[in-house]
Amino acid sequence: MDNAGASARPGTDTTGRPEDGSIDAPPGGRGEAGDRGDTRGSGLPPTFDAFVVERRGDGVVAGVRRLPNTQLPAGDVTVRVDWSAVNYKDGMVTVPGNRVARISPLVPGVDLVGTVVASDSTVVAAGDVVVVHGYELGIAHFGGFAQLARVPASWVVPLPAGLDPRHAALIGTAGFTAALSVFRLERHGIRPDAGPILVTGASGGVGSLAVALLAARGFDVVASTGKSAEHDYLEHLGARSVIGRADLEQRPERVLGPETWAGAIDCVGGATLASVLRSVRYGGAVAASGLTGGPELVTTVYPFITRDVALIGIDSVSTPVDERRAIWGRLAGAWPDAVLDWMAMGEVDLFGLPGALDTVLRGGVRGRILVTP
Ligand SMILES: NC(=O)c1ccc[n+]([C@@H]2O[C@H](COP(=O)([O-])OP(=O)(O)OC[C@H]3O[C@@H](n4cnc5c(N)ncnc54)[C@H](OP(=O)(O)O)[C@@H]3O)[C@@H](O)[C@H]2O)c1
User: What's the gap in Å between 219 CA and the centre of ligand 1?
Assistant: First the structure.
């Protein structure tokens, strides 16, 4: 990935070499591991590199540090991280004053795919490949932007048969969220012959995976994007047509607009979600997961009480693990490999993260940015 022009936030260490040393343990972060040293895996390297974000006064300092393995958090399963990916939430934890990061210092990374190097669990054994995302990962528990991670067994999804690790990382939390959104629309009774399904924030991670999954399931997909340069990309993913962000019905003084969409997957929130709700056909539904356009929702009850429209909230973070493993079992083959490869915007190592995180915060992502720690 070309990181030229990327700017670091104040205090970000971009020197390109890890800073040696330890960090103060966050509350609940070091846990029992600090007392046990590396006894749960004699093959565990004594140190590992991690991208660490730390609050300092009103600012945030972020950079790569070399940590002793005694600073891995508590957990039953220790993983060598083979792949992570950059998500919008990972950008948010680097913004001074954010309310997303719940510990400091924090290793962000809400996604990881890796190989188990030590396990106290019967669910997985050393050598197994696993997928972990959501719960407290990268928010209140050290996440995937590191060479090693340690997590509770109750967060771990064994890599489903038929999925290779890189493709699992391209799917990640974004694909899981897109899949939840599609499955919930289908559970609401929306079928491919219902009419056009709108996807907003379509060129981002959740949006791209939603466009491609809907298309693969035979839906008539209309993609909304703020990026005029990405229309071909979205059509290649399977969108029948692409509209600009500003083309959505923009008359907030009207309580209802034209009945256009049979359903929608909204990754943007704010005024975009309000506009979408005004334009859903009778009996349709909107699956809402995101807030890149803002957390406020100013609307009226009219779409709900005169058009029977449903607003379906999507939360991928706290999905119970049995359901999570079952859903991942449905994701192998859900997207053609070539389509997943098309979504890869680039790969960065830990030192490339400041540029990649800036790209996310500027709304500049096209598909998925992979991380190779
Ligand atoms: N509920 C859940 O469980 C869950 C799970 C994962 C993600 N999320 C949320 O879903 C959203 C998308 O996540 P992501 O990881 O896919 O992010 P992403 O890859 O960074 O994509 C976000 C996309 O949103 C659009 N966008 C950015 N700024 C915007 C603005 N000011 N107004 C309107 N659209 C804007 C852009 O797409 P276009 O240029 O194409 O419009 C951008 O590429 C985030 O809010 C994230 O927190 C929620």
Answer: 21
CATH class of 173-313: alpha beta
Atom of ligand 1 nearest to the CA of 174: 6
Q: Is the pLDDT of residue 4 over 50?
A: no
Rounded to the nearest angstrom, the gap between the alpha carbon of residue 98 and the centroid of all alpha carbons in its chain is 17
211 lines ligand 1 (CB under 6 A): no
Residues with Cβ within 8 Å of residue 251, at least 6 apart in sequence: 257
Helix axes 321-331, 165-187, angle to 10 degrees: 110
Q: Please give the average per-residue pLDDT across 319-340, as a whole number.
A: 96
The DSSP-derived string for 113-163 is EEEEEEESSSS--TT-EEEEESTTBTTTB--SSBSEEEE-GGG-EEPPTT-
- Domain chopping of the chain, boundaries: 19-163+343-371, 173-313
Asked, colleague to colleague, whether 19-163+343-371 and 173-313 share their fold, the answer is: no
Closest CA to 135 of 95, 182, 75, 83: 75
C-alpha 256 – ligand 1 centre gap (Å): 25
Tell whether the model's pLDDT for residue 30 goes beyond 50: no
CA of 290 to the centre of ligand 1 (A): 6
Q: Is the pTM of this model over 0.90?
A: yes
**From 213, 268, 276, 371, mutation site for ligand 1 pocket: most ligand atoms within 8 A of C-beta:** 268
- C-alpha of residue 284 to centroid of ligand 1, in Å: 22
Domain 19-163+343-371 annotated CATH 3.40.1440.60: no
| 267 close to ligand 1 (CB < 6 Angstrom) | yes
Distance 232 CA to ligand 1 centre (A): 19
The conformation of residue 277, written as its DSSP 8-state character, comes to H
Ligand 1 near 174 CB (within 6 A): yes
Please report which confidence band the pLDDT of residue 1 belongs to, taking 50, 70 and 90 as the band edges: low
Query: What pLDDT shows up at residue 43?
Result: 77
| Mean pLDDT rounded to a whole number for the chain | 91
Residue nearest ligand 1's atom 44 by CA = 290
Taking only the tens place, the pLDDT of each residue in 32-59 is: 333 334 444 457 999 999 999 999 999 9
